[in-house]
Amino acid sequence: MKKIIFLFLSLGFCLCFSQAKETVVNPSKENNTTEERKQAEYPGGINVFMREVSQKIDIKRIKGGPGQVRASAKFSVNTQGVIEKISITGSNEKVNKEIERVMKSMTTRWTPGEYKGSPAEIFYTLPFIVNFE
Fold this sequence. Notes:
The protein has 133 residues and is an alpha+beta fold. It has helices at 2-17, 27-30, 46-56, 93-105, and strands at residues 37-38, 67-77, 83-90, 113-115, 118-120, 122-132. Residues 20-24 and 29-34 have low confidence and may be disordered.
């Protein structure tokens, strides 16, 4: 008898003190659509941009031994479609300066990116690998 009473009491306590999971709905977010972001686009795509930059890099201006040099270019495309805020990081300073020179010389305008339907500045980070033979 004591076991049955203990069982009922245990089940009763579990039901009384168990936590219920409540779902709170925020009415201010119900009707909003997701934030729409559109990346800036180079005519022909990012692969065409990378190809054009790599073709303009003058290896003769850079002196280096055999092997690979890696660099990373961070830049922004402003609301007019122009590249600005160029920052190159890598182990070889001459390679960094050459990549920066080439990126500054690019005259083709990008299609500006958008945020919530308005033109916006978009940042990109692209890797570069220069092979010396």
